[in-house]
Amino acid sequence: MNPIKDFAQMTAYLQSYSERKRVVVVCPNDPHTEYAVLRALKERLAEFVLITDSHYAARVEDIRNQYPQDVEVFVVPTPDDAAALAVQMVREGKADIMMKGLINTDNLLHAVLNKQTGILPQGEILTHITVAHIPTYPKLLIFSDAAVIPRPNLAQFKAIIRATTEVAHSCGVEEPRIALLHFCEKVNEKFPHTLDYEMLKECALKGEFGRVQMDGPMDVKTACDIHSGNIKGLSSPVVGNADILIFPNLEASNTFYKTITLFAHADMAGMLRGPISPVVVTSRSDSSISKYYSLVLACLSENHKSQISVNHENLCY
Amino acid sequence: MNPIKDFAQMTAYLQSYSERKRVVVVCPNDPHTEYAVLRALKERLAEFVLITDSHYAARVEDIRNQYPQDVEVFVVPTPDDAAALAVQMVREGKADIMMKGLINTDNLLHAVLNKQTGILPQGEILTHITVAHIPTYPKLLIFSDAAVIPRPNLAQFKAIIRATTEVAHSCGVEEPRIALLHFCEKVNEKFPHTLDYEMLKECALKGEFGRVQMDGPMDVKTACDIHSGNIKGLSSPVVGNADILIFPNLEASNTFYKTITLFAHADMAGMLRGPISPVVVTSRSDSSISKYYSLVLACLSENHKSQISVNHENLCY
């Protein structure tokens, strides 16, 4: 598989899988979510379970009537009930992916993270992964965490690295180049994440993350522009050529997310990892197309996972 | 004066001033600095004092021979001597602006910050101001601090706001719109800068910063894109229309700087404020044109200051 370079390629690749994943959508009642669902149905990318409250029942029924083979509908009293039912379906294996619609993110996460009935296994870390197609960068750029973890500690950095690496694999990048970001190249105890970076690089060398190239601390430009690295006399497989950017805090990652979207016209897809299924939770200011791409990303990533587990079973014989 | 919208306008505006400022350059021996100096000489934007060590004496003499009326040259034993002499000339009023060439930034700052012989008045705060022209934003965007203060405290935020506001004025923005940046709109004691933001907004309302509009916490997109603000139900004179971005930490501001440069093809100018004269210290990976724009910015900013002080003297009669 060649590395996927944009979302059109990602969609085409997803369509090449024979198995379609089943997405449960909590309150698909806003225009952006409806757009994403309808487009995915039209392109036969996934099957859907749409859970809504009675207020929107007619609209959702209408979608089922358009795609009776591929859509199941449940009407429940409140958005919280919709979230609870969606989580239950994921637990029971009746859905592979969860997607947020017109429900407050906190309410959705309340159901996802419930210790008795939720879908985050004990010891797993919830993190958010973004995949960006920036017109001025020659490949996809995966980064984290731009939504959930404000200041990752070492264990959280490891979870973020595992999750982003898995996404890179599902995008056909066999040995992802991971840049650990800071505002300069110096390790400095005043900035504890730079100490974590040293540990992470050791773990990477020992093979903890599989086949990856890891380098840092370095800044965004050093990570993504070979010329800047050269001027600084830096060279490594990562410098100027990053597939994955690991940010030290949410202020920096959010700045990156918003800046490439607004000023560099990037296309974005994002999802939560850690739960037993990916959860698509785009933010209010994300576009319809971004919700659709997020759905494509989640389906691709789940398809890739099932393919790996098949391979793994093969090895056991 | 209409607000300046790009660096071509800024240069034209600078040329409209009858008085030219005098720039002392510490070791103008790298191609980028030489480009900036020669272009400014050709366009008659400033006069120069070039201080270098004997190794580069011939090259610098050559520049003087091209512009004998506008260039003075000093040859000293080492770059540190060059920095010391430059600082002395600023102290003695023989130069208005200082510019870094091929000398380590730490060595230059050592001379600038020396308590006995330096040029940072007691109680003043050293900060870095950047002015960006982003092709996808309709006006100049001023931001800070992307180079000096890792985690501004309240006093440092105030110094940053005063310095950026002064730069906005010199660019013809009479009542700058200042966005206090965070990853969301919530004030939260876990993120102490958001508490500072509350204090800063109070100070702004009381007039501490003169005629400004201030709002936050908000993210980059909310600050610079009216549509994103609308979706979130936010509106203020700042939302979607920021002139100035105040960042909570160096990781975020550096990310912004590098991201708009690399992915959005922004033109940049920057300088240190706090010392009695602006100090131009562009980074290794900045371009020649960025050094030139920084010089233009520093000259404009000093011209504006002298104009204000003239006005002020007038008021005293």
Entry summary:
The structure is a homodimer of 317-residue chains. Chain A starts with 6 loop residues before the first helix and ends with a helix. Chain A is of the alpha/beta class and 317 residues long.
Task: Please tell me about this protein's structure.
- The structure is a homodimer of 317-residue chains.
- The first copy, chain A, has helices at 7-16, 31-42, 57-66, 79-91, 105-113, 154-170, 192-205, 220-224, 226-231, 250-263, 288-316; strands spanning 21-26, 46-53, 71-76, 97-100, 127-133, 141-144, 177-181, 213-218, 244-246, 267-273, 279-280.
- Chain A is α/β, with parallel strands linked by helices.
- Chain A has two domains: 17-124 and 275-317, Isopropylmalate Dehydrogenase (3-Layer(aba) Sandwich); 125-271, Isopropylmalate Dehydrogenase.
- The first copy, chain A, has a six-stranded mixed β-sheet with strand order 8-7-9-6-5-10, with helices on both faces. A five-stranded parallel β-sheet of chain A has the order 3-2-1-4-11, with helices on both faces.
- In chain A, helix 7 links the parallel strand 7 (177-181) and strand 8.
- In chain A, helix 2 crosses helix 11 and helix 4 runs parallel beside helix 5 (105-113).
- Chain A starts with 6 loop residues before the first helix and ends with a helix.
- Residues 310-317 of chain A have low confidence and may be disordered.
- Chain A binds chain B through residues 134, 136-137, 150, 181-184, 190-191, 219-222, 224-225, 227-228, 231-232, 247-256, 258-266, 284-285, and chain B through 134, 136-137, 150, 181-184, 190-191, 219-222, 224-225, 227-228, 231-232, 247-256, 258-266, 284-285.
